[in-house]
Every structure is written in structure tokens, then in C-alpha cells.
Amino acid sequence: MLGMQVSFSSMFRVGDGPEPINVQAASIEELMQALLLRYPDLQTHIDQGVAVSINGQIFRDDWTVAIPADAEVYLIPRIEGG
Length: 82
Description:
Layout: E1 3-8, E2 21-24, H1 28-38, H2 42-48, E3 50-54, E4 57-59, E5 73-77
């Protein structure tokens, strides 16, 4: 399992503020599980829809995606469109 820093969109109120947090996860699914264990209130945002940006590529539906060790990871609100 890889350690990484995760940053959050200003829409999310997580932890002590806007600072990135350290998380151990190898995939988006593991990331979400780790975040929910630490911040149960985040479930509301996940229920409303979130996306994960990994090195600038946005993932919305496939949470099996592996996260590279040196990745820039951001949790952002899911934006619908088409």
C-alpha cells in the first residue's frame, strides 16, 4: 500500500483545513475507504458524487484504478455534463 498526499477541493471540509493529508492506499477504492475511516462525515459528499483527479486525469466511476506512488491526488465534486 502506497502513501500519498491527498488534497481536497474547497467544497469539502475535511480535517484541520485546506492542507493535504497523508493517506495509505493503492487504488481509488482503498483511498475512499481510508478517508471514510478518518472522516466519516465525508460520506455525505461521496453520496452526492465525487471524482478523483490523479495527475490531472479525472476518474468518476472506476474506483479500481491504481494510484502511482508519486501521484498528485485531489478529491473534487463530481460535475455532470455531456
